[in-house]
Write a structure and sequence with these properties.
33 helices; eight-stranded mixed β-sheet; 25 strands; eight-stranded antiparallel β-sheet
Length: 1020
């Protein structure tokens, strides 16, 4: 082998860099363990809410390492937590940034797909046009989206074109308005306007992406991931380690409409409130008089009712609890003061606004107050009362000053040392702010700071106009709320509403279990492969094992270096890589054994073995790599992690198998060592095998035909167990103290007062259930999520430990982590999109592979055989899932992970098939006098040792993962196990025989031989 020095240098450098990168991961884990132990020591399990207390203590411990500083000379510097060999020192922030990133399923956390409303953006661009054609097109576009694969904008264009008549998009009432006057002119055609709108929508979504990215960056979780998904207006957000779902949702979806308004004073607006209250009293009296004969003294009570209500509320007389309800239907709890008009019970807020905004009542307002807008103050957590404000709005509802002028915002403290938010405005905002504060100072008025229609504070101005554009929002904030609000204001407002259409929440305890089970399956699989290679190939197997261990080091090192996120399917991808990475060494060793059998010297056999195996190795890995690449493109979240590790594994496997193993073997041989590439038990194994595969092909066709018919029959009748990825809904994984009956829980949850319809399955142990429901599936609000989860908790209470609180249920309680382990939500819209993208992913991989094999082998017969075998494998895997999902003791839902398994099966099946096809091409050139059938059989027999070796190692690896790995991966692993068995069978009995049957007709076989010979001569 040439250039050994360069390869050794590269191997050494790659190894050292990998060890360097992984050292940060070990250090980060050590620090996190210290934080966990410190939290456990601080709060024992007898303390109420110890889970939350420990979590917060952990966070505080790690935050202190990030923010604390020590004095070094005259300066203060961050604390150093890692000293690398006395050469480099690193802070915790640096260690965390360089450590391997763990995905949600390993660390716990929250994953969400956000839909930015393109409809809202269009309405904004059209200045909320009232044009009937425009609004009808918006409504029609929503209907089209239910079954369309196109974007909302494309649906809108289609809907508009269908109903527009003489109306143009460049109409002054639609897009040719004052705001877009620089871009859209009255005389523009619809096509020209469409191009401009596409650009404007894209700019808005990019703006939303940046706003969300800035907000997430300020949230404080490690390794957040945010990606834009195509041009659909969807954004993927992953927050490993995030625990507070409500806080995350608030940050993500808050539109942050910050406005500054002048307010009415209490004495100006309170008379109107009392008038409305009196009008309600009189309306109630009138209704009562229709049903009853009024008492003789009713008129006297009517005359005094308004006065009595005011007296009672202002404390002038004692309140009679039996009559206040009649005299006070609005539920006024007391007058306010300053900018606060009055106080009401928080539960009455909706009723109060409905009454105050009733057109009949608003007619009582003086003309100068007709645009007054009633808004509530921020609700204090420890108060049952809400404060009512009235802001001086206008016809268009446009404030004098908005949040667009904010250039910076920081968490601060007010004069009473309460958490607050300080803001800085730009020059234009500063000027307007100075004018507003001047008027407020002169009139002794108040300015309300309103965020998303909630008054956070309404300060007076006591020291003259405020110049410079600085202001402060204070209110009933917690420290976290002040930090989050400053973050949202600093990042800017979303250009349209954002809705969470898919969400996954994984508990940290489930993540730890996933790591433990993943590591166990990893070590068991590794141990088997290491021992098998030594058993089968002797000393050469030891060299292959060293290369394999180096390969694993490189995979983890590359993942850490790239900042790639390691997920549970990612661990599965690495373990699967262990199984198939030995394939390259098996191919090489088998070829060396063949060369030794021909009587060649050891050195010559090694050289020719590596050379002859190269074509098969490259073809096999490229086909697997292509399917992994398609999976990476179409997948999201954990599935992308699976594809990432598979791609990295393929590249590192090629390097270690071709170069590192060769270096080790050459080193051993050059120092006088001998290698047999076999042991006493495996020497000559499969040497004299001569199976007539083609003779058995008709039997194989019949067996495959029966299996395919049974699969199709079951698929059309029984169907598949489609997960929420494909149908939409909410899923919860709940652990109980003891085994529970799925039938009993199903009956409880199917009660019309709970969900009405739910599906319950045992997942893993008998005390662990997977619960799915479509209850309120169309409602993506946080309130709906909370309602469904609360209903679930209340329904399951009898089966949970006595005294378990809702908070404990949410995070898992005690050592056994009883309660909710995981939750997931997918809206019907995105479920449909996932289904379609999965179909295209599978179809796309088949097309790509067909074209690659056609390119490599130059004859369509090879492509047909390979793709037919893959179709055969996919149909049988689907059929087995359809036939068995009802009685299998583990979940066999069809979800995105299953699609990953199907694509992996495609790659594996092709890997096997391509190795056989490579040998056929080689034999066609070497043995030109042989009959075509003899060439085919000889090729299959000569690759049999490699085929069985690779299949056995891969199967044992998969079985180790299946038995000892995470429960959530059982369905994916079962599909892979079936796929490996069927794929091995199809490469020998379907792909090759089909190629033979299509090529032997006419002169195709002879043509094939000549073609292969000509190509080899050209290459020579």
């Amino acid at each position: 082998m040439q250039n050994k020095g360069i390869i050794k240098l590269f191997a050494l450098l790659f190894g050292l860099v990998s060890i360097y990168q992984l050292s940060f991961t070990f250090k980060a884990n050590q620090i996190e363990d210290e934080a966990k132990q410190a939290a456990i020591a601080k709060y024992n399990e007898t303390q109420e809410g110890y889970n939350d207390l420990r979590t917060q203590a952990e966070i505080n411990y790690l935050d202190s390492l990030k923010t604390s500083k020590v004095q070094v000379g005259d300066t203060y510097e961050p604390i150093e937590v890692y000293n690398l060999l006395g050469v480099s020192q690193y802070t915790y922030n640096e260690v965390e940034n360089n450590a391997m990133k763990l995905g949600l399923d390993l660390k716990g956390g929250i994953n969400a797909i956000i839909q930015i409303s393109v409809k809202d953006i269009l309405k904004g661009l059209a200045n909320n046009s009232k044009d009937p054609v425009f609004n009808k097109a918006l409504a029609d576009a929503e209907e089209l989206q239910k079954d369309a694969q196109e974007s909302y904008l494309e649906s809108f264009f289609r809907a508009f074109d269908a109903i527009k008549g003489d109306t143009k998009l460049a109409s002054p009432d639609i897009f040719a308005n004052r705001d877009l006057s620089d871009d859209i002119k009255f005389d523009m055609s619809d096509d020209e306007v469409k191009t401009i709108l596409e650009k404007k929508i894209d700019e808005s979504i990019v703006s939303a992406f940046e706003v969300l990215r800035n907000r997430i960056d300020g949230f404080g979780v490690s390794s957040p991931n945010i990606q834009r998904l195509g041009n659909s207006g969807r954004i993927l957000i992953e927050l490993p380690g995030a625990r507070d779902k409500k806080r995350v949702v608030d940050i993500i979806t808050k539109t942050a409409q910050l406005q500054f308004w002048d307010t009415y004073k209490a004495e100006e607006m309170l008379p109107y409130v009392f008038q409305v209250n009196q009008a309600m009293v009189e309306a109630a009296k009138e209704k009562e008089s229709e049903d009853d004969v009024a008492d003789a003294d009713t008129s006297e009570e009517d005359q005094d009712s308004t006065k009595s209500t005011i007296d009672e509320l202002t404390g002038q007389i004692e309140t009679d609890s039996t009559s206040v309800a009649d005299a006070n239907p609005l539920g006024i709890q007391g007058p306010g003061g300053g900018p606060v008009i009055a106080n009401f019970l928080a539960k009455d807020k909706e009723k109060v606004l409905e009454a105050l905004n009733d057109p009949k009542n608003r007619a009582l307002l003086p003309a100068e107050m007709r645009y007054a807008k009633f808004v509530w103050g921020i609700q204090s957590k420890d108060s049952e009362f809400s404060e009512l404000y009235a802001i001086k709005s206008n016809r268009d509802g446009i404030p004098q000053l908005s949040g667009a002028v904010i250039t910076d915002a920081r968490q601060d403290y007010d004069q009473l040392s309460r958490p607050a938010v300080s803001m800085q405005m730009n020059a234009k905002g500063s000027k307007t702010w100075e004018e507003m504060t001047k008027v407020a100072y002169e009139t002794q008025g108040y300015i309300a700071i309103v965020l998303d229609d909630i008054v956070y504070s309404a300060p007076s101005v006591t020291s003259g106009p405020i110049a410079g554009g600085r202001s402060q929002i204070s209110g009933a904030f917690t420290l976290n709320e002040a930090v989050d609000l400053a973050n949202v204001l600093r990042a800017g407002k979303l250009p349209a509403s954002a809705e969470i259409i898919q969400a996954d929440e994984v508990g940290p305890s489930l993540g730890q279990e996933a790591i433990d089970s993943g590591m166990m399956s990893f070590l068991i699989a590794l141990a088997f492969v290491v021992l098998w290679m030594v058993f089968y190939y002797g000393k050469a197997g030891i060299f292959a094992d060293i290369a394999l261990l180096f390969n694993i080091l490189l995979i983890f090192g590359v993942l850490a270096s790239l900042g790639a996120v390691l997920t549970l399917p990612g661990i599965a991808g690495i373990v699967l890589t262990i199984g198939i990475s030995v394939d390259a060494n098996v191919l090489i060793f088998e070829r060396i054994r063949e060369e030794l059998a021909k009587g060649k010297s050891q050195k010559e056999s090694i050289k020719d073995g590596f050379s002859n195996a190269l074509s098969s190795i490259l073809d096999a890995n490229i086909t697997t790599g292509l399917t992994a690449l398609i999976l990476f493109v179409f997948g999201t979240g954990p599935i992308k992690g699976f594809a990432t590790t598979l791609i990295i594994g393929i590249l590192t496997s090629l390097f270690t198998a071709i170069f590192i193993t060769r270096l080790l073997i050459d080193w051993w041989v050059n120092r006088g060592g001998t290698l047999d590439f076999s042991t006493a038990m495996t020497k000559g194994l499969f040497k004299n095998v001569n199976i007539d595969f083609l003779k058995k092909r008709k039997i194989a066709y019949v067996i495959s035909g029966v299996l395919i018919l049974a699969s199709l029959g079951s698929l059309f009748t029984t169907g598949l167990d489609q997960g929420i990825d494909f149908v939409g809904g909410r899923t919860y994984q709940v652990r109980f103290e003891q085994a529970v009956s799925t039938e009993e829980i199903t009956s409880v949850l199917n009660d019309p007062n709970v969900f009405g319809s739910a599906e319950v399955k045992t997942i893993g142990a008998a005390n662990q259930l997977k619960i799915s429901t479509k209850y309120k599936v169309e409602d993506n609000s946080v309130e709906a999520d909370e309602e469904v989860q609360t209903k679930l908790f209340e329904a399951l209470k009898p089966y949970l430990p006595d005294g378990m609180t809702y908070s404990e249920f949410q995070d898992g309680s005690g050592e056994a982590k009883i309660g909710k382990m995981l939750s997931s939500k997918v809206s019907p819209t995105i479920a449909d999109d996932i289904k379609k993208s999965s179909f295209w992913a599978v179809l796309g991989s088949l097309v790509v592979v067909f074209l690659y094999i056609l390119f490599r082998f130059k004859r369509w017969q090879f492509s047909l055989g390979a793709v037919a075998a893959v179709f055969h494998d996919v149909l049988i895997v689907l059929g087995i899932f359809s036939l068995t999902w009802k009685f299998m003791p583990f979940s066999m839902e069809i979800d995105q992970a299953f699609i990953a398994a199907i694509l992996t099966v495609i790659g594996y099946s092709l890997n096997d098939t391509v190795v056989v096809f490579d040998r056929i091409r080689e034999f066609l050139n070497e043995h030109t006098s042989w009959e075509f059938g003899k060439t085919i059989n000889a090729s299959l027999n000569s690759t049999l040792s490699r085929t069985l070796n690779t299949s056995v190692t891969t199967l044992v690896v998969l079985l180790a993962m299946f038995i000892f790995g995470a429960e959530s991966l059982r369905g994916l692993l079962f599909a892979l196990i079936v796929g490996v068995v069927v794929g091995t069978y199809s490469s020998m009995f379907i792909a090759t025989p089909l190629m033979y049957d299509t090529a032997k007709k006419g002169d195709a076989a002879e043509s094939l031989k000549k073609k292969v010979k000509e190509e080899d001569e050209d290459e020579a």
